[in-house]
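In keeping with the milestone schedule agreed at the kick-off meeting, the structural modelling team has produced records for the first pair of proteins. Each record is given below as a sequence line and a structure-token line. The laboratory manager (R.T.) confirmed that both were archived under the project's standard naming scheme.
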Amino acid sequence: MIDNYEDGLIDKADRDRKLAAIGAEMEGIDVRIRVETVPAIDWSWSPAALNEVLTAVLERIELAPDLRPVRAAWRVPEWRA
């Protein structure tokens, strides 16, 4: 949507409407249905691969100023054990 807007293919109202629809659809996805167990994490993976796994198991991550994780909210609390 952003590319289409920047290229002049859609106006701001269309962009905002389409992004809102995508956001609403994403909110409706329950990641707990797709992930049954916490996958092993290999910290040498690419940032994109790490992000995919971490966002599947964690709802929110709070970072310190040095970007170290301080606390996280698990999507399924039982996975923390």
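The second protein of the pair:
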Amino acid sequence: MELLYWDGCPSHPRALAELRGAMTAMGLNPDAVAVREVDSDDLARRERFVGSPTIRIDGADVVEPPEDEPYGLTCRVYYSRDGRVVPVPDRADVDAALQRALTERSHV
């Protein structure tokens, strides 16, 4: 699990708290999240970083961005399941991504 963020965007602490809450609810260690700052455009391109915050589980984004989404230092927006624009992924999307990862790991 990793949370990538750009310090210019204020929503990453909330995303981290919500991710850790979801992990705790599933019996996972909330301290296992690698928190990494993306602080340059070069690093954003190398990391395929489409904005802050970005949560990845086993390298997969919990909410896949559109293919044409540019990489860079910016705040990321998400759409909640009820259609609102929000600054962090919907908890249901995070829960689903965690569950997928747990299921895939149990089949290995």
